[in-house]
User: Fold these one by one.
Assistant:
Number 1:
Amino acid sequence: MKTTAYVTLVATFFLMCVVRMWWTMFLLFGVALTLALVVGKNRFCSDLCPMGALQDSMGQSAAPRRRIASARWWKFLLVPLFWGATFYSTFTYHHDPPVLWVWMLRIMISMFFLAMVTQMYLGRRFFCVHLCPLRHPVLEPARRSRNHLLKKRGPA
Ligand code: SF4
């Protein structure tokens, strides 16, 4: 596990579980999107993401990577579920931070559980490759658009 990812993991735990800052996940997403737009690479995934760090920490216990033909479609189920639950909780409980915190924690733990189970049975970073609700609909399009625009503009 990279030191930077370990630091983010500890900081995420501190902010979410000690400070009880319900918007910890949004803070992480903001950092990830900013990095994708500024650097044009998936630096967040490789160096900072606490979920990636947790998957890497399993190391040798990960299953050999399995090829599942339908796996590329699974994100179309998970992504709407994740963002639906996240936005619904935020708008429904924004006036009640302790309740909202519980919902955010549930969502984060569900994603963590899914990442661990898929890593154990389907291969290393299966969640990142096929399922991540941040990478597929947000980070990848942002990174590609940024690089495409810069390429079109040409050298300054
Ligand atoms: S793909 Fe998602 S879970 Fe994996 S490292 Fe990137 S942001 Fe984190």
Note: The chain has one domain: 3-153.
Number 2:
Amino acid sequence: MNPTRRACLRASAALAAASSIPWLGGCADLGPGDLPGSIAYRPKGVRGAALRDGVARTEIGSTVVTSVRDGFATMPLDENFVPGVPLAQVRQALDDAGLGSASVTIPFTAFVVERRKRRMLLDAGNGSFGAPGSGRLLANLREVGIEPASIQDVLITHFHGDHINGLRGADGKLAFPNATIHVPAPEWDWWMDDARMRAAPAAMRGAFEATRRVFAPIAADVKRFAPGAEALPGIATIPAFGHTPGHTGFGFEDGGHRFAYLGDLTNVTALFLRHPDWAVRFDMDPETARRSRRRLLDEAVAGNWVVAGFHWPGSAMGRVARIGDGYEFAPLVS
Ligand SMILES: [Zn+2]
């Protein structure tokens, strides 16, 4: 074994202790032919920088993750947003975070991962089907030189409209025409069940119809992975059920650092990261969602992961720390 590989394996083994996630990557990146001529293994750090408003690029070892904002939605804040929690407490939490409390603003941010010569997109945004301030993903990608046709894979955390509608335009055309689309198998099975759709309350009809608009014409081509298994070489999948039946995150390890994109594990951080036992009204199984939040956020803190969330502020990726009975998020780029 060459000294480079041995040093890498040592760094990875130090990280691997007591983790429930089958981390992938690390030293596999250092196979023959991948080394840039150096025999000394030097882990690269984690560095982020803003490219323009709403787009930031972060290096994690030799992987590049670009945060690309799809926009925002602002909605009036009422007692329905956090069921079971007095509205005054919800307003106080927003005030404590320096946010206005008359309404709540939800950011949307997707991520491009460039790793092992592949360019992948994590979640696809609202497309032209969301709130007026959303649907900026394609324009923002192009602004930083990422052509949608160059995306090779799109990985989807779950089937809510803000995550899948961007896959297909209002004209019916696929937004990422050369990409293979990967989805959690239990998410597919739940939403694409016609009997369940027929039995669903009227308020959920739109969500079921969105999944068919997006996926029905390409059903045979969509790759369905088992949560916990490898979705693509070097991309781990992280079961995070509760928000939806098959909600799943994505992660990798590179240069001694771990990255985990946790989708909608929490909605806005000032409320649901700070108060992980609160459940946003979009959590379909609040009790399971709470357990997933605690489990994964505890692990993120213990492992010093770089963590990302679709509805998080700033570049929507950074570190999580414990505070009181909850957690606090510090974006790498604010
Ligand atoms: Zn969402």
Note: The first strand starts at residue 46 and ends at 52.
Number 3:
Amino acid sequence: MIRLWSVLGNAQKLDGGAMFGNAPRAMWSHWVTPDAGNRVPLACRALLATGINGQRVLFEAGIGAFFEPKLKQRYGVVEDEHVLLASLGKAGFAHEDIDAVVLSHLHFDHAGGLLAAWAPGKPRQLLFPNARFIVGRECWARALNPHPRDRASFIPELPGLLEASRRLEIVDGEFSTTLGPEVRFEYSHGHTPGLLLATVGGDGGVVFCADLIPGRPWVHLPVTMGYDRYPELLVDEKRRFLDDKLARGVRLFYTHDAECAMTAVTRDDKARYGVTQEVADFAGLTLGA
Ligand SMILES: [Zn+2]
């Protein structure tokens, strides 16, 4: 039996314009209210699943608390403490209990939570000492060799730490050795090369949408992020992805939506996509029940 928890990591405040690509402010400010500095609140939400191949699996780790104070401020990280660890604790788990961590890509707002909180003079330290780390082949290559446009989104020390752990599994197919048939992977390239999208529990399950659809506003087909490398490709991928999830009854899990963890998807007679059955958060949800 698979059970699921939505687990909050450190929150962020980022420039609204950058988050909504070419959508005008007059439009996106209806979806998320910006502060005086035009910044919008964003979550870094992880998905915890138990009972996958007998294991406890964490889908992503959020931004965490690894930034030194100056960078923490630049990237709008809200809290000082490592919120993900506290949230896991609330769900009844410690990071040592996690058997596998699935990373959609290695941008710091998805992988930074793998690291211990920053402390003056302390080297970066990898948490989750018993977990296998599952990363897509193209995302791994990108982290080792970033493009100038997204170089600042990576943590230079992270690939070395993951490799040194000897618990890294690189995947490039539909399934991973560690997780078996209950987690199916697909890939998208509009945000970053080989973004890993994981569906838990097959038809009627839940998909971790990562940065293909970071929250409810991005379910609207034309809405993309300024951080996407190929927005038009992303829109085409999103259409196929949403049609597939609709057909299979798979719910969408959002990492960056500050107020909503999960929804179902709808499509009207003009082929416009929307959301229904919004769930703010959940704990111990049984899949299929
Ligand atoms: Zn990203």
Note: Residues 231-248 form the longest helix (18 residues).
